[in-house]
Amino acid sequence: MFSALVFTSLSASPIAAGQSKFLGDIIGSSVPENWDTYWNQATYENGCKWGTVQPSSGSFSCGQCDVAYNHCQTKGIPFKYHTFVWGSQEPGWISGADAKSAVTNLIKAAAGRYKPQLIDVVNEALHAPSSIRNGLGGSGSTGWDWVVMSFEIAKSAFGSGSKLLINDYGIVNDAGAVQRYPGIINILKGKSLIDGIGIQCHQFNVNTLAAATITANVNSLGATGLPVYPSELDINGNSEADQLQIYQRVFPALWTNTNIKGITLWGYIDGETWKGGTGLVACGNIGCRERPAMVWLKEYVASTHV
């Protein structure tokens, strides 16, 4: 069985090297030895989230976030900051803080330390809105004033040097969400505050999704005139063969869509991913074995230039 599979080579180039789109992945507390053999864009999994970088109101702890950022700087690849305003993994102290001042201080501190190519300014506005949204303007006149204010603060701090994104899950598989999401996006676009659209694409959104549905929904988002970034793609299955078949259905519909400018996976080492069975490389005492989906992914991207 193992003779038909491929073991990783640390001399290999990233999968999407030379392509017009990046194919990235997350970095955690350290950079895996074989990370650069696959990926050419990075997002820190948890280390840049508000609860991690500012555990108390008077201090910042950026060491974890630095790991991914510094690696991207060294390799000359895009780094995405994930994320500023989100209803999960918020520090407990913000419940009693002045919301606008707290968000402004967070974003200004990040802007003074990092120059990310991409930023998830607001995460999961539809599904996990920030607990301090009323302090950021609440619904207001637009229905999404708290999102607008968050983007205004980010725009002021980062200027035009970073692409500002909104990000959410449950979009690519939900016709209703595809109708609601552009409502926020077009408000931001009308104020020249947004540069791209994030769609998370976790296994619970895409495993059973038809390729034609992916194409139709991405095209609907692309009709806003903004690029789309699948930001947290992961796929599992009942077996390695099942995972491969799902990748073969889902990934081409994303990779070849002209509205999509880059894809970020949410982990790749078996046993170290957020959702069980989503790993693409199984590592052990004798090295790392590429699962069939990874073997196919490398071959597919190499033969499908975009």
TrEMBL record:
Residues 1-18 form the signal peptide. GO terms for molecular function: endo-1,4-beta-xylanase activity. PROSITE patterns: GH10_2. Keywords: Carbohydrate metabolism, Hydrolase, Polysaccharide degradation, Signal. It comes from the Eukaryota. The keyword Nuclease does not apply. Transmembrane segments: none annotated. GO terms for biological process: polysaccharide catabolic process. The keyword Hydrolase applies. Residues 28-300 form the GH10 domain. Pfam families: Glyco_hydro_10 (PF00331). SMART domains: Glyco_10. Belongs to the glycosyl hydrolase 10 (cellulase F) family. This is Putative glycosyl hydrolase family10.
